[in-house]
Amino acid sequence: MELRQLRYFVAVCDELSFSRAASRNFLSQSAISHQIARLEAELQVTLFDRSTRRVVPTDAAERLAPIARQMLALEEMAIAAVRPDRRRIRLAANMSFANRAMAAIAVMRDAHPDVEVDFIIRDFAARLASVRSGDVDIALIRGSLPESEAGGRTRLTVRHLWSEDLVVGVSERHPLADVESVDLQQLSPYPLLMPPQAQQRLLRSVIADAFDAGAVAVQWGPPIAADRTVLAELVNHPDAWTVLYAGETTPGVRALSMAPGLMQIDVNAVERADEPERALVRELVEVLVQEPDS
């Protein structure tokens, strides 16, 4: 058993998709599938049910997942313990921050050629856990810190960085596809596709508040299944729409603007409260706050 196999296994558990897990690890889907097959052969169990269009973790996978996460966290802690490097910054986020993060890293590298800035892809809970453990220096999140995460033995601080306007995503075949900017009245007749409430509580709240404030009814469509992507569902349902973060695009989908401030979300940085602020981390934050093309 290799740690990289556990890393790929955890990615498939998180994404419920071999293709998305492969993208997250910058590998081909066949490479991920091969490593998972090797892990299953070594453990002599089936970890994922591939008999349907969905990727479903088996009972064995459910038991292995928390242990695998612990082993990967221990690996990172061991590396950090024996290779402390104050010229290295570890930034945790998800893929929606990739463009902005990579632009900031390029600026930092130009200013400090001897500094390494790692961009670590983690889901929301894993980002907070990584900050608490000291595995990463800073994490980017949208929205506020949940009350359940605010306390604990290691306190976290939240720093507001910027606010960003959401955009509307529609299929190229949608009746509004050729409109540059839309309002709530125009969107009201069409179903809104989103993941379930438990997965997208923040975005659903922002949308509901905007429609309530405008006294316009929102037509909620059926929740998107965990093994499907919203953007792909838009292509399959050309009369529907969704909300996207700026820069999220895919072939066949158009991004339409809305009035500034109509649907806006805060982006925050999360750090350990007991860690003294490092000059390099402060500089990275200052670069991140700037628009990528400025």
Give a written overview of the molecule:
Helix content is 41%, strand content 18%. By secondary structure, it is an alpha+beta fold. The chain folds into three domains: 75 residues, Arc Repressor Mutant, subunit A (Orthogonal Bundle), CATH 1.10.10; 102 residues, D-Maltodextrin-Binding Protein, domain 2 (3-Layer(aba) Sandwich), CATH 3.40.190.10; 96 residues, 3-Layer(aba) Sandwich (D-Maltodextrin-Binding Protein, domain 2). The protein contains eleven helices and ten strands. The N and C termini lie far apart (46 Å). The model has no long low-confidence stretch (mean pLDDT 87). The chain has a five-stranded mixed β-sheet with strand order 4-3-5-10-6, sandwiched between helices. Strands 8-7-9 form a three-stranded antiparallel β-sheet. A two-stranded antiparallel ribbon has the order 1-2. InterPro entries: LysR_HTH_N, LysR_subst-bd, WH-like_DNA-bd_sf, WH_DNA-bd_sf. Keywords: Activator, DNA-binding, Transcription, Transcription regulation.
Q: Stretches where pLDDT falls below 50 for ≥5 residues?
A: none
Radius of gyration: 21 Å
Given the structure, what is the number of helices? 11
How many runs of DSSP E, i.e. beta strands? Answer: 10
Given helix and strand content, the structural type is: alpha+beta
GO molecular function, one term: DNA-binding transcription factor activity
Keywords: Activator, DNA-binding, Transcription, Transcription regulation
Pfam families: HTH_1, LysR_substrate
Protein name: LysR family transcriptional regulator
